[in-house]
Specification:
There is one protein chain. This protein has 165 residues and is of the alpha+beta class. The protein has one domain. It is globular, with a radius of gyration of 18 Å. The relative contact order is 0.18.
Length: 165
């Protein structure tokens, strides 16, 4: 077990005991691993690097929030490369962002009604990240958004010709 220092502000910090998923899970097979850690997905998944690379995780569900990752110091493209390099391919689900209230009330977070229109079957990691950087449609406020990635592990006996850059 290791410890990390968590700082609340410049004057308050605390040592927190941290266990990695690799340490906790050991050699167990995992059907679905979900992480929704408010931008710290890279740290969580790095702590599961042996588990992910081994192919013992069948499905990986990852919250992918441009703004939260940037606030946490995570490069979103690096997270996508990490997932891909561990044998996973992904698709994204609905986009979410801050929505304008139709009745003039307070803005609320919700699903983007105008789904992103990508003209090809696959897009580059950079283009995908850019599509979440600023979601600006008639119904949105024009801030960053998030989606969930559903990823599946390609077992070594399967082949895949993907593109990433």
């Amino acid at each position: 077990m290791q410890t990390n220092t968590i700082s609340i502000d410049e004057s308050i910090s605390e040592q927190i005991a941290v266990e990695t998923l690799d340490d906790v899970v050991g050699n167990e097979d995992i059907f679905l691993l979900k992480t929704d850690t408010q931008g710290f997905e890279m740290s969580v998944l790095q702590g599961a690097s042996n588990l992910l690379a081994s192919g013992r995780v069948s499905l990986l569900l990852v919250e992918f929030s441009y703004g939260l990752m940037k606030n946490a110091g995570t490069n979103p493209v690096n997270l996508l490369n990490f997932i891909y390099d561990n044998g996973f391919v992904c698709t994204f689900m609905a986009y979410h962002t801050l929505q304008r209230a139709a009745d003039g009330g307070p803005n609320r977070y919700g699903i983007v009604p105008e789904f992103p229109n990508f003209s090809q079957e696959s897009i580059t990691f950079s283009d995908f990240v850019q599509s979440l950087k600023n979601i600006s449609t008639p119904h949105t406020v024009g801030v960053s958004g998030w989606t969930d990635l559903m990823c599946w592990h390609l077992r070594p006996d399967r082949s895949f010709q993907g593109r990433r850059t």
